[in-house]
Write a structure and sequence with these properties.
496 residues, 6-stranded antiparallel sheet, 1 helix, 34 strands, 1% helix, 47% strand, globular, binds beta-D-fructofuranose
């Protein structure tokens, strides 16, 4: 049956077959969410990159489409973005039928092999039939390279205040901002980041956008930067900066390093390009309005090539809404599943669970690997252990003394396919409310996504249990009774 292989995600996006990495070209146009991705159609390991393509009306169910972009004489097609050129600034379409324009990195293998440093350039392609067919621009590349080895992953958006296209582009250890009036001719405006943030690895997949702060009228700019390696729990991960953007330059007063997700398996994530509603002649019921929706690649370069699947490799996170909150003086970026995910949940009963001091309770369920577990906790010292019939366990722990949440997948199932996979992952949770916070877990056949306090602290990790988890032991490590309010386990419908 379709999508029923061992470890096949049932409600996360995965390609029908073969290798996938980064999300690319996420753009909303005429009621359709486009989703492209780094794709190698010949093997289940990374190889010459194409852009795979899928579409969705709700970001929950997907339709696979033919490959959108193939390598050409300028190189392989690396990561990038897509925009609706609503004013036909590029001239590729008309204002009545505005082109979709994809902006991506060309990676010239021959140049790399010859030891040159200028093998990554930026190219564009357009579609006049809402993404079904694509034509490469004959003037490619639109940005050449004068000797920067890592020069890639253009994310373009329409800057409504300055009426221009803005591109964020990474150059090894920093971000560059470029601008253009027609998507073809680009000028460099500024640089950011040599002296800010984490630098354990090369900077990749930038994204720059504005968000409201909580319910206030204050607005801030957020910059996402993926780095590989250098993530807090090893390998690749995504950091962010909160600051200002004046149309040319991004600046921030932030001194600390901030991570979007503390788990090992959320990389290269970026957000949907959605124009303000009034740029559309028509509006659609599924219009995302001003929501900022993020999708990340649910893997890690440390072991991405080694995970134990055969037909395809890897999946994406659930789409998540990003929001900014100000906690004390600090701006924090939250990420939390989009509301539409809720419609996949089968109805289930809520109950209040009380667990005696230093006691535990075990819940059975058939099975946890396609379920949501959700409750409101007023306790800060507890453990959640998922287990199966072959004694594999996935252990989550909250510890108030160290203000740390841990995810231990050392005995979670298949782990020996790569030496670093079996890890205990740690997440500091210093700002978690002491009174009450929500714990929400989304589990699929080969992943767990954990959201504390509405997305303030998040961990995403792959898991490969040999049997489904069918028991959950809830432990109270404190010396007083523990209350977990509104506890419920809901089955999640498959979407494939
Ligand atoms: C990030 C990345 C990008 C690059 C792509 C190549 O995972 O390394 O920087 O464009 O993957 O597939």
């Amino acid at each position: 049956e379709y999508y029923s292989e061992p470890f096949r995600p049932q409600y996360h996006f995965s390609p029908e077959e073969k290798w996938m990495n980064d999300p690319n070209g996420m753009v909303y146009h005429k009621g359709v969410y486009h989703f492209f991705y780094q794709y190698y159609p010949e093997d289940i390991v990374w190889g010459p990159m194409h852009w795979g393509h899928a579409t969705s009306k709700d970001l929950v169910t997907w339709e696979h489409k033919p490959i959108a972009l193939y390598p050409d004489k300028h190189g392989l097609i690396f990561s990038g973005s897509a925009v609706v050129d609503f004013g036909n600034t590029s001239g590729f379409g008309t204002t009545d039928n505005p082109p979709l324009v994809a902006i991506f990195t060309y990676h010239l293998m021959a140049g790399e092999k010859a030891g040159r440093k200028d093998f990554q350039t930026q190219g564009i392609a357009y579609s006049l039939d809402n993404g079904d067919t694509w034509t490469k621009y004959e003037g490619n590349p639109v940005i050449g390279n004068d000797g920067i080895k890592d020069f890639r992953d253009p994310k373009v958006f329409w800057d409504t205040e300055n009426s221009t296209w803005i591109m964020s582009l990474v150059a090894g250890d920093h971000l560059q901002i470029w601008s253009s009036d027609d998507l073809k001719s680009w000028s460099k405006r500024s640089e950011f980041g040599r002296d800010k943030g984490a630098h354990g690895g090369v900077w990749e997949c930038p994204d720059l956008f504005k968000l409201k702060v909580g319910d206030t009228e204050e607005e801030k700019w957020v910059l996402l930067i993926s780095i590989n390696p250098g993530a807090p729990n090893g390998g690749s991960g995504t950091q962010y900066f909160v600051g200002e953007f004046d149309g040319e330059q991004f600046t921030t007063e932030q001194e600390d390093i901030k991570w979007l997700d503390w788990g090992t398996d959320n990389y290269a994530g970026v957000t949907y390009n959605v124009l303000p509603e009034d740029y559309y002649g028509d509006t659609y019921a599924n219009d995302p309005k001003d929501e900022r929706i993020f999708i990340g690649w649910m893997s890690n370069w440390t072991y991405a090539r080694d995970t134990p699947t055969e037909k395809w490799r890897s999946a994406m996170t659930v789409p998540r809404t990003l929001s900014l909150e100000k906690n004390g003086e600090a701006y924090e970026l939250y990420n939390y599943p989009i509301k539409a995910i809720n419609k996949l949940l089968k109805p289930s009963e809520k109950k209040n669970l009380t667990i005696t001091a230093e006691g535990s309770e075990t819940i059975s369920h058939d099975h946890f690997n396609q379920a949501e577990i959700r409750f409101v906790s007023s306790a800060n010292d507890f453990g959640l252990t998922f287990g199966n019939e072959v004694n594999e366990t996935l252990v989550l722990k909250m510890d108030s003394a160290t203000q740390t949440f841990t995810l231990d997948r050392t005995k979670s199932g298949k782990t020996d396919f790569q030496e670093d996979f079996a890890s205990v992952q740690e997440m500091p949770v210093p700002q978690l409310p002491e009174e009450e916070f929500e714990v929400r877990i989304l589990m699929d056949h080969s992943s767990i996504e954990l959201f504390l306090n509405g997305g303030q602290y998040v961990m995403t990790a792959q898991i490969f249990p040999n049997e489904f988890y069918d028991s959950l032991k809830i432990e109270n490590f404190s010396g007083s009774e523990m209350l977990l309010k509104d506890f419920k386990v809901s089955k999640i419908r498959r979407v494939w």
